[in-house]
Amino acid sequence: MTTTASDSFKARYSSAIFNTFGPPSLVLERGEGVYVWDVDGKRYLDLLGGIAVNALGYSHPALIGAVAKQLSTLGHVSNFFASKPQVELGEKIQQIFAEEGYDQPVRTFFANSGTEANEAALKLTRLHKPGGKVLALTHSFHGRTMGALSITDKPAIQDPFLPLPGNVEFVEPTAAAIEAAFDDSVAAIFMEPIQGEAGVVPVPDDALTTARALCDAHNALLVIDEVQTGVGRTGRWLAAARCVKADIVTFAKGLGGGIPIGACVGVGSVGDLFGPGSHGSTFGGNPVACAAALATLDHASGLLGHVTETGAWLESELSSLGFEVRGEGLLRGIAVRDSAAVARQLLNAGFIVNAPNPTTIRVAPPLVITKEDLASFAEAMKGLAHTQAGAQ
Length: 392
Hints:
Helices cover 38% and strands 18% of the residues.
């Protein structure tokens, strides 16, 4: 049997890298637009985008230019100092929140990932109401570091690391369950507007609005995790802003267009809770990451309508084949009978998706993807409809 370049790299990977992700299905070498190529030269349409990360696709000239320009002048500084991109990105986020209807000032703490952004949010809730209880939703996912893991309802990844930080209670994502769990002991509730790891399941609007009203009544903080849904992924900057305004918003993933960065945004008086020494990050607010985020946000601003239209077209195409499609914009969960089998068949056919649960495949492609790009995927799903559509 001939050994391919992929086989060789996979063997080297297994001997050099922790097995935290399992064996890699591909060894990728380059990308352009919405396509990637593996080390054997096979091309794939990337419908996952690094799990909602590569907002502008691959090798976007604006992103390359911003990173190269910044790195040629100032690559990294300590947070004892400020940099121009860091300040400008903080101001850009203020502008975005104003566009989304926030009428209070906001301040941002920059981190390196979504889980770090949620760690910062957890610390803010402790400062807001010391000793208070934190509510989180069942089926939630907020990250894998110890604090974020404590509000992630996934026993398979929680149990090996018990005991986790305590005083967390999980509630069903319904208005009634949230109301029953609330009292003055609650410091905060963490909510995703769409639960991505659960299978791209939208949280009902009345659950969000009920949580907002209860937070106001009990002096608690509403924390909205927009790590996966933010930065234009659903066709607007912040998915939850259409029905609620949060006290804390976390986001990451698409913010840097592929360069690691996360953000924890405090609204109103929450922006005053962190003082010198109360939190920090060596690389948070790195000028190169901030320059990448500025370029990403600049170009994403012209894609919001495109995301809405393209996502609706994809939903219509797949629904016509008999598939149930959940989500908004270009974050979609497609119900199937066997997600692992579908993901494997699609990969063999040149399409990258993933299976967050046994009956859902998730697509979160670059925001620049077009209907023409997606037509081949719709055709591939047509070939699977007779065996995989109609799952509940």
